[in-house]
Specification:
heterodimer; A: mainly alpha; MetI-like fold; 10 helices; about 80% helix; B: Rossmann fold; 4-stranded antiparallel β-sheet; binds adenosine-5'-triphosphate; binds magnesium ion
């Protein structure tokens, strides 16, 4: 149910606030009140954006980062969901694997970056592995927890109708876990980009994080602002895409609070 | 039709703080073939517990339940259960909810369709087959829950406060539908409610459970 939102006076106030803030930034930088090294004016950021696109600096790096994110993310989703399914089917397997997964999950991912670089180099592979490690457990544990929290009343219905283990898992526990599966996917989408940008800043031959650290070295604040804004927008879009998929999959049967 | 016999049932629960709750004490009850028995009692007196033991969902700590002369050790297709809030699966359409038992029993597709058509018609759910439970009223959900049980043609039906979640008028309609249904297909019915009027109106015999011992 998509409702048309009316533009209220609060919305107008919000827009005015943003415009004023941008105008002040422009004024403060132009008049030299704040050094260009610290803050770039909106105009400078815009010019730099146009320049980086025209000179062909942006596109290959953007594509590289997106590739790293998507490959890592989809690997994590595929593996996370598969393991969750196996654990739900075979609880003994979870009993056995859980402690290992918890241990790997507990390692701060940023701390193993040097090791990953040693093993996989500073290119594509180490980024993919890092994103995979960043996100796979969020997806796995959210899904498994969702399956475990299947409402007992549904399980009673299954029992009464003599459903076997396979039917219980596929017809009841997995559908019941879908909302938390998507929560995991959304959390992971938000972290995936953080992970890749961080690792590209540490060491890389390209990518948005690489552009960011390069700009930092050159004290190019306009470029830094531009990349930060770009990364934020991509991150939000990514989460929104997952949101949309979730909506398409389960809006028909999911009762939302605002629909009641 | 089968008779249900419960013999000296005792049930204890271990509550979270380690205390033992004596939920059922020495419950002996016989429901005759084709009889409609209602159990009435205050909240927490063990009605649901008893029903779940008869359904084979819970095991008694002592005593036993028989369906005809077979001891009940687990759920069976002979005993159907209608749950308090219908307990439909939100991710299945009404039709697929009603078909759930036939799917698990691997009933052939054509026969499924036939039986579905019959009970959807009977329970007045025509036109709502492809809706999801959240798109239906409470009364309709309840009827779908009943249809899901009837479509399996169990010999005995256990109902746990099936009409408690609907408004008074819907409730009256559902009650009359249940009476008609009972005349149409003679079944042994055990009906749990906390509404004594409902119990007297529907049942051949009313059994009163006393508050917790
Ligand atoms: N899983 C459980 N763990 C511990 N105690 C329980 C559990 N289930 C029920 N009980 C206790 O057993 C007693 C009987 O519960 P039961 O659900 O059978 O009551 P009821 O008669 O169906 O009540 P209501 O009319 O409210 O549904 C209650 O005191 C309840 O607190
Ligand atoms: Mg109850």
């Amino acid at each position: 149910m998509v409702k048309k939102r009316k533009i209220t006076w609060i919305n107008i106030l919000q827009i005015v606030t943003i415009v004023l803030l941008l105008a002040y930034m422009q004024y403060a930088v132009d008049s030299g009140k704040i050094s260009k090294i610290f803050i770039a004016s909106p105009k400078m950021i815009w010019d730099d954006a146009v320049k980086s696109i025209k000179t062909g600096v942006l596109l290959p790096n953007l594509i590289l980062t997106l590739q790293e994110v998507f490959v890592g993310y989809f690997l994590a989703a595929a593996v996370g969901i598969s393991i969750a399914l196996l654990w739900t089917l075979f609880p003994k397997l979870e009993e056995y694997m859980d402690v290992f997964c918890q241990a790997i999950m507990a390692v701060p991912k940023t701390a193993i970056l040097p090791l990953l670089i040693l093993w996989f180099g500073i290119g594509f592979q180490s980024k993919v592995v890092l994103i995979f490690l960043f996100t796979v457990f969020q997806i796995l544990y959210n899904t498994v927890t969702g399956a475990k929290q299947t409402d007992i009343k549904y399980l009673k219905v299954a029992k009464v109708f003599q459903a076997n283990r396979l039917q219980i898992v596929f017809h009841i526990m997995i559908p019941a876990a879908i909302p938390s599966l998507f929560n995991g996917l959304k959390l992971a989408a938000a972290t995936a980009l953080t992970g890749v940008v961080f690792s590209e800043m540490q060491s890389a031959k390209g990518g948005l994080g690489y552009l960011l650290s390069e700009a930092q070295n050159l004290l190019n604040s306009a470029r830094m602002f531009f990349i930060i804004i770009l990364v934020t927008v991509i991150s939000v879009l990514f989460v929104q895409i997952i949101h949309l998929i979730e909506y398409l999959v389960c809006h028909k049967w999911q009762q939302k609070i605002h629909d009641v | 039709m089968p008779a249900i016999k419960a013999n000296k049932i005792e049930k204890y629960y271990q509550s979270a703080d380690g205390e033992m709750v004596h939920a059922l004490k020495d419950v002996t009850l016989e429901i005759k073939d084709g009889e409609f028995v209602a159990i009435v009692g205050p909240s927490g007196c063990g009605k649901s517990t008893f029903l779940e033991i008869v359904a084979g969902l819970l095991s008694a700590d002592q005593g036993e339940v028989f369906l005809d002369d077979k001891k009940i050790t687990g759920t069976s297709r002979e005993i159907g259960v209608v749950f308090q809030d219908a307990s439909l699966f939100p991710w299945r359409t009404i039709k697929r909810n009603i078909a759930f038992g036939m799917e698990t029993a691997k009933v052939p597709k054509e026969e499924q369709e036939e039986r579905l058509a019959h009970y959807i018609e009977m329970m007045n759910l025509k036109g709502f087959e492809h809706k999801f439970p959240s798109q239906l009223s409470g009364g309709m959900r309840q009827r779908a829950g009943i249809a899901r049980t009837l479509v399996m043609n169990p010999q005995a039906i256990l109902m746990d406060e099936p009409f408690s979640a609907v408004d008074h008028l819907t409730r009256c309609t559902l009650q009359d539908e249940l009476i008609k249904l009972r005349e149409a297909e003679k079944k042994t019915i055990l009906f749990v409610t906390h509404d004594i009027n409902e119990a007297v109106y529907l049942a051949d015999r009313v059994i009163l459970f006393s508050p917790r011992p």
